[in-house]
């Protein structure tokens, strides 16, 4: 007997814990797309600087694209602004970025998070968006707080080259900068759970890629910090996304404490992830972004989505961030595939 139709909230929550679903949920990690901006009647820079406009833009994931999950915002640098980083706000086709590594001359062994850090930088804007969405869609559509991972925040603050050198030559400094950034992540997530009532969090940590980080270093340095983070926020489900080739440490991912893992094809294929991880963690992915999601036809997106579902994903999503010139129709093709009788 077929399951009765679920709400997006129930569908997503069930998929995150390995339960039954009426169909595969569909989500995207970012929605910073020109066509969606027009469809939601928002403009840049307001969609990056005003909580109400930001939330209106994020609603487009559900109202225009038909996805099962809402996110607080789009960017990887808001966390760094909480520790003093200046950012380039980007454009309507380019995400914000850090202007310089504000802590490159600061010894992480001698640094403590500032008091009231939660009220600093862009965090109040982002939290305002999350709160608006939770109040509007409570228990109907899940709202996730997006929080950049500790390795990536550290790269923004001290510089990627510097922290990678520390990982090999000055391990105590590397551990200290990761601890600072992990503590920041925990504060952000805890505040978002307690004050806004978000339903979970999604953590992109692209600088943790196996293209940059040795698998042994992932296990020794990052895994225990991920464990600490997920233990401190265990009452809500969590997604970890890492770009590039993650095959070298994939078997360690379930030990991190995250409920779901998003991987990037073609660096890691759906079949490789399914064989390597099986049912030990919810698999999220992994329709290729540039050649399929942005440049492909609706038929190509639909076909790739069906293949990913057959190959074993539990939640269908683009392999990474949604490119800015992605047509609305291509995201809807993913949703159409999830509703197909395979």
Structure description:
The chain is an alpha/beta fold and 342 residues long. It has one domain: TIM Barrel (Alpha-Beta Barrel), CATH 3.20.20. The protein has helices at 8-16, 34-39, 46-49, 51-63, 78-81, 123-137, 150-158, 160-169, 171-196, 215-232, 270-277, 289-294, 298-311, 328-338, and strands spanning 70-71, 87-88, 97-98, 143-146, 200-204, 238-242, 260-263, 282-287, 315-318. The strands form two sheets. A seven-stranded parallel beta sheet has the order 1-4-5-6-7-8-9. Strands 2-3 form a two-stranded antiparallel sheet. Strand 7, helix 11 and strand 8 form a beta-alpha-beta unit. The two termini are 15 Å apart. The model has no long low-confidence stretch (mean pLDDT 97).
Give structural attributes.
single chain, 342 residues, alpha/beta, TIM Barrel, seven-stranded parallel beta sheet, two-stranded antiparallel ribbon, 14 helices, 9 strands, 45% helix, globular
């Amino acid at each position: 007997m077929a399951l009765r139709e679920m709400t997006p909230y129930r569908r997503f929550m069930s998929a995150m814990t390995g339960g039954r679903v009426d169909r595969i949920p569909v989500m995207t990690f970012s929605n910073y797309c020109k066509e969606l901006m027009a469809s939601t009647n928002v403009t840049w820079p307001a969609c990056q600087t005003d909580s109400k406009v930001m939330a209106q833009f994020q609603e487009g994931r559900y109202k225009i694209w038909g996805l099962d999950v809402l996110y607080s915002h789009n960017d990887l640098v808001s966390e760094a602004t909480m520790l003093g980083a200046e950012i380039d706000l980007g454009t309507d086709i380019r995400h914000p970025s850090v202007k310089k590594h504000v802590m490159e001359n600061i010894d992480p062994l001698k640094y403590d998070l500032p008091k009231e850090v939660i009220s600093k930088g862009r965090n109040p804007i982002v939290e305002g968006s999350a709160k608006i969405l939770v109040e509007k869609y409570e228990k109907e559509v899940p709202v996730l707080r997006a929080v950049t991972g500790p390795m990536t925040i550290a790269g923004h603050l001290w510089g990627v080259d510097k922290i990678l050198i520390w990982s090999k030559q000055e391990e105590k400094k590397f551990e200290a900068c990761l601890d600072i950034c992990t503590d920041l992540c925990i504060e952000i997530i805890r505040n978002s759970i307690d004050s806004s009532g978000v339903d979970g969090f999604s953590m992109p940590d692209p600088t943790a890629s196996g293209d940059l980080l040795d698998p042994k270093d992932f296990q020794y340095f990052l895994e225990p910090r991920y464990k600490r983070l997920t233990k401190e926020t265990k009452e809500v489900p969590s997604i970890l996304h890492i770009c590039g080739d993650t095959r070298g440490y994939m078997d360690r991912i379930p030990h991190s404490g995250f409920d779901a893992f998003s991987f990037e094809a073609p660096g890691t294929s759906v079949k490789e992830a399914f064989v390597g991880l099986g049912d030990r963690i919810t698999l999220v992915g992994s329709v290729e972004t540039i050649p399929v999601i942005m440049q492909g036809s609706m038929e190509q997106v639909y076909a790739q989505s069906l293949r990913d579902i057959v190959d074993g994903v539990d939640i269908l999503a683009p392999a990474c961030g949604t490119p800015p010139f992605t047509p609305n129709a291509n995201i809807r093709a993913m949703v159409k595939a999830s509703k197909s009788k395979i």
